[in-house]
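User: Hey, my collaborator sent me this sequence without any context and asked if I could get a structure. I don't really work with proteins. Can you help?
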Amino acid sequence: MTKALVTGCAGFIGSHLTQRLLRDGATVIGIDGFLDNYDVAAKLRNLAEIGTHPAFTFHSAMIQANRWEEWLEGVDVVYHLAALPGVRSSWGTAFTDYVSHNILGTQSLLEACLKLPKPPVIVASSSSSVYGTMDGDKTDEQTPLRPISPYGVTKASMEQICQVYVKAFGLPVTMLRYFTVYGPRQRTDMAFHRFFRHLMKGETVSIYGDGQQSRDFTFVTDAVEANILAAQYADPGDIFNIGGDREFKLIDVLNLMGSLLNVSPKITYMADSAGDSKRTSADIRFATGKLGYKPRVALEEGLRLQLADLQAQDKG
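Assistant: No problem. I've predicted the 3D structure and written it out in structure-token form, which is a compact way to encode the shape of the chain:
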């Protein structure tokens, strides 16, 4: 039986991954802490969704607690999703916290894994944050990294420290660059969650910029599948783009949300937000060829599922 460690297990992607592993028959050790910039109530709901599964052990702690000997005992595979999220909150003095969580926390995990029989370590990165604004056609993994926010700098640095441990010690670390993941349990500060909430209440939706910025959107179960595949088929040091089936303008997504609710969105346009990418578009050929990754949930279906989850929350 596989024993997995999932850092960030109570978060958006982490809770879905934990459930998938448990359904697949794995034993899961989950670690998560509670930070001011992540809705605590949302994390508690996510933990409730996971439930009291006999094969799941939860530790409420920050990874900086460095209880790795306890957490990693007997572990066969590590999924590292814990991070301090948020582009807009990473400026100024907060950058110190981002360095602590995203770079130093990751390095301490890698150091601890050296004491084990080299388990696969699957690390969550961020496409728009490490690539910056993307030009031309689809972006592949060889595209130079040009982060445009302090958060992006920490994610790019996290990837670099992972590569150092691959090259120096042969640690089997794989990095997944997610392209704008959405779906049920999405963080409450993220755009789709906020848009749906405003539309459901008949409120005006505020958009940074002119709404013409575009994204490659990835449904959460597709991101989870990428983690499972990477643990099986990736080689040490591999980096994979994990995206959806096509690129959409933000204004078109908002109108699609409105159609699902039978409302016409009322929109207020605000100034561009520093650190936000204008465009992301994933070239996923490497992940498709090596991992067999293929996005299976189209945007409209994924939005329906996210809306249904929000409506179910309201019904209690």
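In plain terms: The chain has a mean pLDDT of 94. You can pass these tokens on to your collaborator as they are.
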